[in-house]
Amino acid sequence: MPSRTKKLRGSRTHGRGKKAGRGAGIIGGHGNAGLHKHEKLRMLKAGGDHFGRRGFKRPQKMVYANTTMNVGDLAERLDTLVSEGLASKDGDRYTVDLTSMGVDKLLGNGSIAAPVDVTVEQASAVAREKLESVGGSIVE
Q1: pTM, two decimal places
Q2: Residue 83: its pLDDT value, please?
Q3: How far is CA 102 from the centre of its chain?
Q4: Where are the domain boundaries for CATH 3.100.10.10 in the chain?
């Protein structure tokens, strides 16, 4: 008895119709094929938000994050800032302009021992309290 393939030589589709003999024709494709067409119902049942965008993205000119510095970091860097010309020392009192350094807000983490007069746009209540307790001040 001849094999099926030998028997169907010359028939172009070997009895499978046009699409069934191709790659994944009879099963409707591989993976997520057809989610806009014949697999739409499956996609909607599994998760209707499969396609498209969700949420929004704020324009970068609207997004603003403060550049911050802690009181403890300021205390550690005082001598370096004086040597770089970003701060001045008058006796035992320091004067620092954080705004010119690009710092927007002074936060209160850490400790400080020297009196410092700081120029900054914003300061937290804890930072203000720590500076004033050692004789410093904040100029906004």
Answers
A1: 0.57
A2: 93
A3: 22
A4: 68-139
